[in-house]
Amino acid sequence: MLLGAVTQRRVDIHDAELVKHYQQLEKVQADVKKQSKNLKQKFEEGISGQQAERATTKLRKTTDQYRTLFSSLSEFQRRGSGHVPTPELMEPQELSQLLPHHSQQLAGPPMPLLLK
């Protein structure tokens, strides 16, 4: 009986970690979408130079953060109970497509795609 309780507690802890990871991914995904929308708007308004580079760098860092979080997602899912609802998350490749065309030119070569 004690072993079952310990196992259940461990599963509950892993499920809580998975929920937290999902929440982090959702937040960073929303940040990428917001930053991308703002950057597109700035490019339409004629942004250039250092201001454009700073905004592009910020967006790329946020996108990289999403990729890192997403790459560890399967480990959290594997340890969970399988009963935690999965939120709508974009694949990193889809998120990369949100980058404005101009920002890709400013920041150099395109980001490598993560393969599952």
Protein model, in words:
The protein is mainly α and 116 residues long. The protein has one domain (2-106). Helices cover 72% and strands 0% of the residues. The chain has helices at residues 2-44, 49-71, 73-79, 92-96, 101-106. Helix 1 runs antiparallel to helix 3. Mean pLDDT is 84; it is low at 104-116.
How would you briefly describe this protein structure?
It is built from five helices and no strands. With 116 residues, it is mainly α.
Main beta sheet strand tally, sense and closure: none
**Strands, total number:** 0
Beta-sheet strand percentage? under 5%
Output the structural class.
mainly alpha
Number of domains: 1
Number of helices: 5
Morphology: rod-shaped
| SSE series | HHHHH
Contiguous low-pLDDT stretches (5 residues minimum) are 104-116
Topology:
Layout: H1 2-44, H2 49-71, H3 73-79, H4 92-96, H5 101-106
Helix pairs in contact: 1-2, 1-3
